[in-house]
């Protein structure tokens, strides 16, 4: 036998587990030599067969023939996947064995993953009453889990593994070389089980796993050659490490199985750690999430159960979390891989607990969970009984603090390590020299992010000691390496890490090979909003090259490796002290000593800067703060020498002072006592002053020593207001102070009174402006959650420039049962849990956000403080039935005077048969005088007070069946705003909006009302946000009239509009008010009646050009779909980045449709991942659009069920009489209509939607039959909600006939389905069909060039690209960049330009086809410029490009190839232009903010290229929404101007050049059609390989072009 080195593991007394690498030959010979048989049958699946079957077949047949044995070798392949693990799958294998006359001495070999092992093992257990079998697992999961232990089983419709047997294999061969072909996700899948066994059994193995993930993963990423690794002599260190990990994991399970094979003692339960909860999660998420991924989440949740019960410390939970994350495994149900799945909405606490009831470990109804005591040890040598309430608390997304007196008082505790000190210590130790042991390090999300980032930069090595209590850091002396290209450093929402690492990344030097790959740091959506501009500016000014990859001033950043230069650095430090600390920490490693000068006024949070300096001193670097030599005044200037930090052997991290404020505040608010150890008067942290400077003035007794702080609260209800307090030294603690101030109902201590007429119980907190740019805008968050005007606590507040005021009130007056939204901010959650200790039924919605700084806060609150915490599952989606006030509640109208409230209100009253009341007329009846006279007589304050009384009276006297129109100024009164906001929560308040210019014109003629005394526009700007705040609906009055129903003329003196327009107005008023009141909803009757229904999708960027044809377009349809994601303003067409239409523009579009049609609108914001254009990550922006739809009374709102559940629930709770279309689109072609996953998707959609929409893609005609059966099955199961079920793609057309609900249709007026024919997609005017079809005809080629118009790169484009007769395509704006994601390969030019205008199908050598993208735009531009440039222009010193889209990129590339020295770029949206500055390597691009080129230094441009639509430009000054082209453009004596637009032939730019006298300047002009021809010639050659007949083609194109003008 060839030499093979293996490890053997004993199980059940036999060394039957053999582990090694490249074992195929070893396996064959071992089986043949030790397991004689008449037949050897290898069973595998088709996937594994392609990879490994030939090797086994060759070796078996070769060795059998050479041994002269009479044995047979048979193979049987089955389909891959869990569906084969069934009764039918088992019978199929048994039939194969019987057919081939296999007998009882047969040996069966199971080659594959867990499915093959379980299934084949069960066959072996029962065939001929049991035959021998061998496990040859090919996945890591099967190697370490399912193949070991003898469990075999199949699935049934009732559950997994419910029918099976214990049947031990003769051998288990573990060949780690198989893992080299394993996908990375499958490797991570198996690592979950490896981590599991180490966590329950061996801390040393776990330590190796958590410290060496990169090495372990690397072992499978480099395929071995020539059987390297088969022997120890040829085995690499990575291979040996991988084998040791696998052997160690298997050894644990083998030992457990040996001692409890049949699960009689409970020991074997231990290998089910994470499985009780994990299996329940898997039951919901399969097949979208893998077994190991679900078990990974289950392990964390079960570890949290152990922590909750007091068995496991946070150190253990933190280590387990970090370890699993390092293998790319999910650790929470909020992981994006889970939340993006529709079925994740079904992961409710009740559902998971119900699934757990049938777990095989259970004893009757009692659930059992393996509880960790520490890493490597369990509480019991078996699973432990755990009550449902404990499990439910771990699973719940929210928490409720049961108010009461802390039962553990007097409390003595320590808080987790300081986040601020932990992060600084990590950076210092990583940059330092030597080994440092960090004690009391905070185990949280933030510190984990910092550690992983420093490890990713190869800046240090980290290991754990003392069961994870000590982190050992081996410093890298400041030597850092950029991550591989394409790998980003992801920081989540860790602001401290983001600021510190920005400067740390500047220390990266280019590699010895000259590699200058930049380091990219990024974060989540909130992190991308938090400012970092001041720090980047300072570093950039110091010579570092840092680029913003998205928004200016925020992450993500690209940081070039160049080192920190040093010298004098100026930094604006008025926003965040973390900027200062970031530079301080890295300054010793600069090339020169650093002098750091802080500018911009008062420095924020000086104590944190002092903390940094003190810690640097501990690590061996002395920072000197300079003083003015003449006055001795301390300056904000720091000197930092060049040095290398010297790591102390041990560094103990203080407890977190910010976190300490919460238990201390609980003592204060409940009148109890609390002592916090490890924080005292000598603390480095500013927040340590909280007890003395906040709690003591509020009436607490505070005792503080150097090392601890004790607070004894006053009797409950006796907290004092603080008056004025400057919390600048302890800004993070202001949230805690705010909730205490809310119940501070006693006057401030003497000397703290405000004395400015403010209320007695006022607490005015200042110095905290920086808290607006933390995890959220914390000042706003506290105001909103304490708010007296919403369903919150009822505490009045006022926002200040640098803080807020809170007006305290007795705690029994605060509202109970409040749900607190935490904005994913840990400090918001913990602050309001303090208030929850005295205000009953307070629910903290996002309980897990505390993991940022105090992951075990909720457990400590119960176990150490003594306040019970209950898990809360936030309610399911709100009831879909109409709002509870029914159709009778009176409607309130608000809006500017002159907006048409009276006109609209009278029409609405007539429509509904209700009574109209004008509050101003009611006022004049009550006070028999005109409004103007009342104001002149009594003054505005008296009028506002009387107006408020009138409002209250109207709401009491006329609660139903009335339309009440209020005066425009009602919102000026805060009390009135509060009343209106409260009314709008469940009854209609309509803001009647009208164009402000029309209002101004009307008010100029109106004389009955009081004069404003200030410009109308100023009044409008002040009131507009109040109108929005106080209303839940908005009616757009585009009528341009304010005529009462019975009047002949409008108050402005204008004549009434035409009868048709008046009827349209009446129709829209009737539709809108009938719908929002529920009196007559405008929903499609076809849906409720079960009849067929159809809708027309409007994918215009602007619907207004279609309005004249709207009636014809919509003939026969039941609704129109407005694709909001595709709407674009004119100014957005010259930008390259994704655009979101402004809310005001969306309002205009809806109003435009309403002017011509009362058809129901289906309002759709389709995301990119589901086939649309809206960015998937912009959740808040999407729901702003959805809420706008409800305000506008839109009938149907299409909401993708992949959006976050909380947002969907909130939207549904406000939907009124509108219907939600709960939709899901799967473009992959993997959606199976007969699968459990689509049934789960239906369940989720039914939960949210009044209408369900599921869209898949057909791979065959059979998929349409399956779709129809799915719909019938859903209806027969009692689903009464309308279902839209459609297959996309060419083969899915049949599904549109089968579908009965809102089937999408087209119309002859639309060139193709749902595509605009005229504006502004330029393909409608394209000469390309003429060009190419002429060439095809002249050369006798059997091709045709056709137009495919679409609003986005959608399924139709996908289908076209994959057609067998697809021969190529042109791509026009705005899709030249979007199409790239759908191509296989790009030309170097297209790659450089970043835009594709030509697609060419190409064949590979193996016959497969790829889609190749090229760009010929640049060739057309280059050739026309070169051909038309006047002879006097020998060199292009400067040139100008107008626009910043894909064509502008091509222009830059073309001009660069022509040797242009300076390329000026102008675009109305500067942000879009900035993306092009460095887009083309080597091109010198400069942004200009004006087209007046005379202001630019140096030669004037001799080449000008416009890439914007001609309609967007003008040569007349003052034209709105148009770009003015000045004649100074042509300042150069000679040149060429190219206008890429070719409609009209004479564009404003080309007309402008004609005005330049040729005697003065010699400019040549080029029409866009000439560029089109040049680039089209090249396209033709790329598609056909033939030269284009240029002259004949050009002649035909010019003739056609001129005849169309």
UniProtKB/TrEMBL annotation:
Q: Where is the Shikimate dehydrogenase substrate binding N-terminal domain?
A: 1322-1399
Entry EC no(s):
4.2.3.4, 2.5.1.19, 2.7.1.71, 4.2.1.10
Q: Which GO terms describe its biological process?
A: amino acid biosynthetic process; aromatic amino acid family biosynthetic process; chorismate biosynthetic process
Name the chemical reaction catalysed here.
3-dehydroquinate = 3-dehydroshikimate + H2O; 7-phospho-2-dehydro-3-deoxy-D-arabino-heptonate = 3-dehydroquinate + phosphate; shikimate + NADP(+) = 3-dehydroshikimate + NADPH + H(+); 3-phosphoshikimate + phosphoenolpyruvate = 5-O-(1-carboxyvinyl)-3-phosphoshikimate + phosphate
Instruction: Summarize where Zn(2+) binds, as residue positions.
Output: 193, 275, 291
- Show the GO MF annotations: 3-dehydroquinate dehydratase activity; 3-dehydroquinate synthase activity; 3-phosphoshikimate 1-carboxyvinyltransferase activity; ATP binding; metal ion binding; shikimate 3-dehydrogenase (NADP+) activity; shikimate kinase activity
SDH C-terminal domain: from which residue to which, for each copy?
Answer: 1568-1597
Q: Which cofactor does it need?
A: Zn(2+)
Q: Which residues form the active site?
A: 263, 279, 849, 1225, 1253
Major localization listed first in the record, in broad terms: cytoplasm
Pathway(s) per entry: Metabolic intermediate biosynthesis; chorismate biosynthesis; chorismate from D-erythrose 4-phosphate and phosphoenolpyruvate: step 6/7; Metabolic intermediate biosynthesis; chorismate biosynthesis; chorismate from D-erythrose 4-phosphate and phosphoenolpyruvate: step 4/7; Metabolic intermediate biosynthesis; chorismate biosynthesis; chorismate from D-erythrose 4-phosphate and phosphoenolpyruvate: step 5/7; Metabolic intermediate biosynthesis; chorismate biosynthesis; chorismate from D-erythrose 4-phosphate and phosphoenolpyruvate: step 2/7
Write out the residues that bind ATP. 895-902
Sorted alphabetically, the Gene Ontology cellular component annotations on this record are:
cytoplasm
> Domain Enolpyruvate transferase spans what residues?
414-861
Please report the stretch or stretches of sequence annotated as the Quinate/shikimate 5-dehydrogenase/glutamyl-tRNA reductase domain.
Answer: 1438-1511
Instruction: Explain how, and how many, cofactor molecules are bound.
Output: Binds 2 Zn(2+) ions per subunit.
The segment annotated Shikimate dehydrogenase runs over: 1317-1605
3-dehydroquinate synthase C-terminal domain location, by residue? 190-362
Q: Where in the cell is it found?
A: Cytoplasm
Residue ranges constituting the 3-dehydroquinate synthase N-terminal domain according to the UniProt record: 77-188
Q: How does it assemble?
A: Homodimer.
Tell me what this protein is called. Pentafunctional AROM polypeptide
Question: Can you name the source organism?
Answer: Multifurca ochricompacta
């Amino acid at each position: 036998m060839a030499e093979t080195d293996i490890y053997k593991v004993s199980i059940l007394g036999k060394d039957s587990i053999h582990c090694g690498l490249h074992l195929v030959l070893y396996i064959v010979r071992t089986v043949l030599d030790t397991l004689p048989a008449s037949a050897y049958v290898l069973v595998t699946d088709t996937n594994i067969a392609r990879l490994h079957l030939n090797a086994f077949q060759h070796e078996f047949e070769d060795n059998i023939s050479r041994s002269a044995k009479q044995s047979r070798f048979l193979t049987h392949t089955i389909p891959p996947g869990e569906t084969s693990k069934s009764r039918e799958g088992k019978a199929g294998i048994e039939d194969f064995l019987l057919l081939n006359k296999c007998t009882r001495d047969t040996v069966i070999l199971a080659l594959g993953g867990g499915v093959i092992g379980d299934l084949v093992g069960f066959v072996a257990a029962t065939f001929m009453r049991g035959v021998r079998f061998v496990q040859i697992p090919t996945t890591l999961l099967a190697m370490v889990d399912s193949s070991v232990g003898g469990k075999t089983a199949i699935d049934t419709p009732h559950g997994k593994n419910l029918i099976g047997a214990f049947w031990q294999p003769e051998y288990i061969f573990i060949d780690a070389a198989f893992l080299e072909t394993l996908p990375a996700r499958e490797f991570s899948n198996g690592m979950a089980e490896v981590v599991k066994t180490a966590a329950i059994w061996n801390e040393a193995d776990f330590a190796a796993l958590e410290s060496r993930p990169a090495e372990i993963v690397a072992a499978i990423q480099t395929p071995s050659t020539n059987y390297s690794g088969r022997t120890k002599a040829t085995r690499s260190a990575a291979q040996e490490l991988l084998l040791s990990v696998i052997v160690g994991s298997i050894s644990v399970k083998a030992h457990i199985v040996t001692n409890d094979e049949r699960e009689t003692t409970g020991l074997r339960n231990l290998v089910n750690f994470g499985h009780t909860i994990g299996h329940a999660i898997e039951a919901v998420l399969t097949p979208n999430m893998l077994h190991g991924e679900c078990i990974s989440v289950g392990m964390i949740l079960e570890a949290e159960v152990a922590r909750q019960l007091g068995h496991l410390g946070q150190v253990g939970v933190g280590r387990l979390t970090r370890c699993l994350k390092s293998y790319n495994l999910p650790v929470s149900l909020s992981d994006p891989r889970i939340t993006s799945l529709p079925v994740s909405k079904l992961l409710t606490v009740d559902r998971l607990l119900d699934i757990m009831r049938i777990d095989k470990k259970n004893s009757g109804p009692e659930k059992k969970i393996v509880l960790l005591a520490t890493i490597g040890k369990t509480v019991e040598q078996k699973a432990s009984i755990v009550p449902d309430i404990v499990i439910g608390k771990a699973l719940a997304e929210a928490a409720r603090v049961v108010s009461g007196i802390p039962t553990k008082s007097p409390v003595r505790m320590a808080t987790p390590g300081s986040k601020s000190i932990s992060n600084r210590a990590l950076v210092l130790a990583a940059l330092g020299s030597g080994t440092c042991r960090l004690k009391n390090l905070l185990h949280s999300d933030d510190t984990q992010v910092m550690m992983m980032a420093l490890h990713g930069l190869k800046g240090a090595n980290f290991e754990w000691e003392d069961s994870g209590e000590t982190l050992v850091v081996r410093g890298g002396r400041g030597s850092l390496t950029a991550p591989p290209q394409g790998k980003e450093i992801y920081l989540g929402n860790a602001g401290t890490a983001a600021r510190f690492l920005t400067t740390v990344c500047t220390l990266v030097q280019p590699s010895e090979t000259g590699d200058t790959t930049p380091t990219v740091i990024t974060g989540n959506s909130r992190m991308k909003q938090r400012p970092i501009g001041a720090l980047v500016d300072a570093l950039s000014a110091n010579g570092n090259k840092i680029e913003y990859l998205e928004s200016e001033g925020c992450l993500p950043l690209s940081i070039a490796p160049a080192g920190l230069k040093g010298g004098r650095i100026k930094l604006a430090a008025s926003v965040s002290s973390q900027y200062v600390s970031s530079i301080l920490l890295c300054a010793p490693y600069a090339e020169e000593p650093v002098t750091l000068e802080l500018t911009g006024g008062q420095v924020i949070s000086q104590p944190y800067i002092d903390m940094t300096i003190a810690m640097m001193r501990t690590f061996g670097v002395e920072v000197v703060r300079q003083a003015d030599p003449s006055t001795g005044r301390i300056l904000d200037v720091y000197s930092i020498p060049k040095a290398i930090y010297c790591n102390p052997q041990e560094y103990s991290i203080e407890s977190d002072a910010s976190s300490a404020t919460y238990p201390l505040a609980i003592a204060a608010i409940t009148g109890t006592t609390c002592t916090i150890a490890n924080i005292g008067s000598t603390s480095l942290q500013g927040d340590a002053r909280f007890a003395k400077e906040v709690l003591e003035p509020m009436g607490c007794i505070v005792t503080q020593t150097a090392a601890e702080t004790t607070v004894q609260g006053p009797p409950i209800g006796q907290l004092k207001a603080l008056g004025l307090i400057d919390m600048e030294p302890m800004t993070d603690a202001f949230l805690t102070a705010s909730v205490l101030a809310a119940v501070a109902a006693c006057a401030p201590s003497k000397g703290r009174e405000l004395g400015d007429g403010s209320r007695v119980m006022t607490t005015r907190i200042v110095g905290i402006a920086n808290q607006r740019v933390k995890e959220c805008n914390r000042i706003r968050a506290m105001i909103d959650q304490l708010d007296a005007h919403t369903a919150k606590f009822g505490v009045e507040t006022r926002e200040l420039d640098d803080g807020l005021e809170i007006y305290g009130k007795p705690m029994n007056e605060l509202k109970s049962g409040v749900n607190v939204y935490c904005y994913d901010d840990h400090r918001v959650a913990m602050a309001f849990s303090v208030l929850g200790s005295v205000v009953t039924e307070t629910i903290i919605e996002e309980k897990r956000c505390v993991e940022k700084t105090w992951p075990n806060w909720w457990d400590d609150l119960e176990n150490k403080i003594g306040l019970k915490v209950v898990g809360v599952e936030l309610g399911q989606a709100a009831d879909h039935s109409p709002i509870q006030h029914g159709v009778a509640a009176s409607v309130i109208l608000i809006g500017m005077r002159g907006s048409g409230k009276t006109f609209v209100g009278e029409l609405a009253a007539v429509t509904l048969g209700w009574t109209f009341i004008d509050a101003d007329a009611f006022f004049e009846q009550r006070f028999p005088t005109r409004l103007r006279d009342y104001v002149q007589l009594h003054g505005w304050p008296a009028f506002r007070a009387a107006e408020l009384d009138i409002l209250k009276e109207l709401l009491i006297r006329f609660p139903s069946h009335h339309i009440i129109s209020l005066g425009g100024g009602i919102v000026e009164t805060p009390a009135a705003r509060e009343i209106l906001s409260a009314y709008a929560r469940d009854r209609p308040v309509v803001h009647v909006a009208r164009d402000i210019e029309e209002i101004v014109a009307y008010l100029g003629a109106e004389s009955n009302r009081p004069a404003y005394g200030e410009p109308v526009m100023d009044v409008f700007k002040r009131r507009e946000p109040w109108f929005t705040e106080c209303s839940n609906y908005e009616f757009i009055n585009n009528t341009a009239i304010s005529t009462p129903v019975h009047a002949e003329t409008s108050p402005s003196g204008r004549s009434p509009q035409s009868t048709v327009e008046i009827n349209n107005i009446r129709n829209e008023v009737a539709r809108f008010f009938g719908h929002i009141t529920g009196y007559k909803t405008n929903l499609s009757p076809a849906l409720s009646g079960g009849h067929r229904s159809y809708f027309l999708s409007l994918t215009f960027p602007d619907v207004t050009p279609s309005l004249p044809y709207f009636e014809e377009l919509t003939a026969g349809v039941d609704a129109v779909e407005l694709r909001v994601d595709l709407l674009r303003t004119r100014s957005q067409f010259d930008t390259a980045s994704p655009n979101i239409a402004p809310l005001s523009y969306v309002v205009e579009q809806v109003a435009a449709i309403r002017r011509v049609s009362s058809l129901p609108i289906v309002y759709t914001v389709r995301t990119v991942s589901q086939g649309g254009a809206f960015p998937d990550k912009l959740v808040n922006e999407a729901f702003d659009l959805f809420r706008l739809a409800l305000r506008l009374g839109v009938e149907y709102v299409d909401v993708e069920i992949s959006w976050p559940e909380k947002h969907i629930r909130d939207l549904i709770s406000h939907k009124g009489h509108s219907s939600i279309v709960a939709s899901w689109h799967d473009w992959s072609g993997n959606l199976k209509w007969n699968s459990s996953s689509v049934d789960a998707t239906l369940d989720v959609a039914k939960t949210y939607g009044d209408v369900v929409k599921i869209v898949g893609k057909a791979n065959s005609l059979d998929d349409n039959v399956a779709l129809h059966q799915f719909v019938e099955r859903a209806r027969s199961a009692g689903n009464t909600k309308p279902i839209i079920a459609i297959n996309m793609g060419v083969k899915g057309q049949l599904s549109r006939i089968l579908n009965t609900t809102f089937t999408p249709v087209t119309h002859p007026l639309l060139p193709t389905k749902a595509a605009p024919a005229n504006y502004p997609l330029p393909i409608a005017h394209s000469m390309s069909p003429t060009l190419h079809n002429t060439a095809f005809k002249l050369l006798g080629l059997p091709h045709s060039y056709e137009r495919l118009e679409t609003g986005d790169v959608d399924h139709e484009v996908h289908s076209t690209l994959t057609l067998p007769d697809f021969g190529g395509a042109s791509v026009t704006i705005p899709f030249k960049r979007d199409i790239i994601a759908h191509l296989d390969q790009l030309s170097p030019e297209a790659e450089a330009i970043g835009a594709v205008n030509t697609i060419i199908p190409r064949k590979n050598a193996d016959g497969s086809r790829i889609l190749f993208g090229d760009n010929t735009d640049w060739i057309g531009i280059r050739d026309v410029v070169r051909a038309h440039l006047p002879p006097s222009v020998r060199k292009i010193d400067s040139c100008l490009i107008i626009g910043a889209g894909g064509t502008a990129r091509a222009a830059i590339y073309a001009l660069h190839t022509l040797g242009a020295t300076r390329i000026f770029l102008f675009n109305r949206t500067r942000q879009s232009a900035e993306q092009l500055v460095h887009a083309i390597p080597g091109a010198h691009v400069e942004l200009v903010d004006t087209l007046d080129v005379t202001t630019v230094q140096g030669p004037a441009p001799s080449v000008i290229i416009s890439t914007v639509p001609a309609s967007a430009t003008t040569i007349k000054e003052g034209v709105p929404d148009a770009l003015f082209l000045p004649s100074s453009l042509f300042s150069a004596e000679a040149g060429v101007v190219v206008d890429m637009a070719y409609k009209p032939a004479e564009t404003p730019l080309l007309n402008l050049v004609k005005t330049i006298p040729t005697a003065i300047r010699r400019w040549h002009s080029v029409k866009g059609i000439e560029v089109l021809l040049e680039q089209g010639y090249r396209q033709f050659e790329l598609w056909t390989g033939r030269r284009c007949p240029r002259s004949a083609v050009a002649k035909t194109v010019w003739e056609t072009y001129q005849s169309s003008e």
